[in-house]
Specification:
alpha+beta, Jelly Rolls, Arc Repressor Mutant, subunit A, 2 domains, two-stranded antiparallel ribbon, about 20% strand, elongated
Length: about 325
């Protein structure tokens, strides 16, 4: 059997050059077992994307090179909930914690259905002074915490679409060399601030991964049925959220109300149809307005211009 102890990717040094590292960690011999990590390092910043599959429990020996703020994003967790330990991280959740410089052992649960996919952001101690003025109780808590023997799961919450967007930007970062490093650094700090905003919410107001999925389903439904979206009650039943959670969660996740989003989608589609040559009356009907003058008022409120500005039809 291969040794269970693995030398993890060390925290970057203070040098400010961009470095990419691909690592394959050894695992016990098992069908389809794999543990691959791709990391980008820039000064005290380390970004990594990993894929882990092992049908048996595994212990990972972690030997950090120095203290760091670690954000772990569980992008896919195929282990059934019934087989997952209660405190374990769920799919579409993140956890943020301070990692000490001392080594520790991390128990990895087996994967049953599909590989576990994750991303991590490490902000080394060089960043602590610049982050300490942030007006956030969670920032102070993370920066002043005395790390325990194992990473704490206290700072966990659901991954929001905005966080997914930044993770996507980090993975497909433009530019090259030093400029790319500056881009990654700026986006990593933006991501950390989004996490703080999520953690600052009272636990009762935080969105669970199931809530996020339901709200994304609601938005997808509205994208397809913006002309006839139905009532809040009907939408809440469709996506399995109560009306209060639907309305408050939609505002929290997408920075607009349900009907504000419907109006926005209607106006975006209306503008496209006008530019394609449909008449104002036909467009108004197509996007769900019975009275063209009501449509014209909503269009002007959205774009500051009357529909006739864009219309090529009669």
């Amino acid at each position: 059997m291969l040794p269970a102890t693995v030398s993890p990717i060390a925290h970057p040094s203070s040098s400010r050059h961009l470095e990419a590292v691909d690592t394959t960690h050894p695992l016990p011999p098992a069908p389809d077992a794999e543990f691959r990590v791709r990391e980008l390092r820039f000064g005290a910043l380390a970004l990594s994307w990993g894929r882990y599959a092992c049908p048996v429990p595994h212990t990972l020996a972690v030997e950090p090179a120095g203290p760091a703020l670690v954000s772990h994003f569980r992008l896919r967790e195929a282990l059934p909930r019934s087989q997952r330990a209660a405190p374990g991280l769920a799919e579409q959740e993140f956890v943020c914690y301070q990692e000490a410089a001392s080594s520790y052992e991390l128990r990895l649960a087996p994967t049953i259905v599909a590989p576990r996919v994750f991303a991590e952001v490490r902000l080394g101690a060089d960043y602590f002074p610049s982050l300490s003025p942030v007006e956030s109780s969670w920032a102070r808590r993370l920066l002043t915490a005395t790390p325990g023997a194992l990473p704490s799961l206290d700072g966990r919450a659901a991954i929001t679409p905005a966080m997914h967007g930044i993770l996507h930007e980090l993975q497909g970062a433009p530019y090259q060399g030093y400029l790319q490093g500056l881009f990654l650094e700026a986006k990593a700090i933006e991501l950390f601030l989004l996490q703080l905003a999520q953690l600052e919410r009272p636990v009762s107001q935080r969105l669970s991964p199931a809530d996020v999925r339901g709200l994304q389903e609601a938005r997808a439904y509205l994208d397809a049925h913006y002309d006839q979206p139905g009532t809040i009650l009907e939408l809440s039943r469709r996506v399995g959220l109560n009306q209060t959670k639907l309305k408050a969660g939609f505002q929290q996740l997408f920075a607009t109300t349900v009907f504000g989003y419907v109006r926005q989608r209607r106006m975006q589609q209306a503008r496209q149809l006008l530019e394609e040559g449909l008449s104002i009356a036909a467009v108004a009907e197509r996007v769900g307005y019975q009275q063209p003058h009501h449509f014209a008022a909503a269009f002007k409120k959205q774009f500051g211009l009357l529909p006739s500005t864009f219309s090529r039809g009669s």
